[in-house]
């Protein structure tokens, strides 16, 4: 006796398998394959472009209202940190995507980040404190050689043991 599975799995030589749809129905004779990946990529790029435009418009509006102002906010200093009331001078804003949602972040004059509470309310208290220009630390440059010659007693610099440099004059000819 021949099993049904064996008949389905075996193909007769010289006979091409008939193409079928996902439901197992035979495909019509004029069927055309459609590759959806190009259209899906276009769809995703349109969503990303619309998201970027919306994000930029939101940040322009937010910056116009709070940038350079002293504000009172409820925020945390990191994701999952306790929420507290802060009064800061806003020097920067951003909108970042964390854990399946967007989070508004303010920066203060010391470049600390404050993650605003969901459903946040911002109270603008007035003009913020002017930014103090950051001073760059200049490395200390020493004119003395860093290595002391052998036999130099402690407390005596290496420069004091060196013979004085005498400028030489060139004889005109």
Description:
The protein is an alpha+beta fold and 173 residues long. It has a domain at 68-128. 23% of the residues lie in helices and 21% in strands. The protein has helices at 4-9, 37-66, 158-161; strands at residues 69-76, 84-89, 92-98, 101-107, 113-116, 123-127. Strands 1, 2, 3, 4, 5 and 6 form a six-stranded antiparallel β-sheet that branches. A hairpin with a 7-residue loop joins strand 1 and strand 2. It is extended, with a radius of gyration of 37 Å. The N and C termini lie far apart (123 Å).
SSE map:
Elements: H1 4-9, H2 37-66, E1 69-76, E2 84-89, E3 92-98, E4 101-107, E5 113-116, E6 123-127, H3 158-161
Antiparallel strand pairs: 1-2, 1-5, 1-6, 3-4, 4-5
Features:
6 strands, six-stranded antiparallel sheet, 3 helices, alpha+beta, 173 residues
Number of helices: 3
Structural class: alpha+beta
Topology pattern, helix = H, strand = E? HHEEEEEEH
Large-scale geometry: extended
Q: Which stretches are low in confidence, meaning pLDDT under 50 for 5 or more residues running?
A: none
Report the sheet with the most strands, covering strand number, pairing sense and barrel closure. 6 strands, antiparallel
What is the terminal-to-terminal distance? 123 Å
Number of strands: 6
Helix content: 10-25%
Mean pLDDT: 77
Query: Which value, in Å, is the CA radius of gyration?
Result: 37 Å
Provide the β-strand percentage band: 15-25%
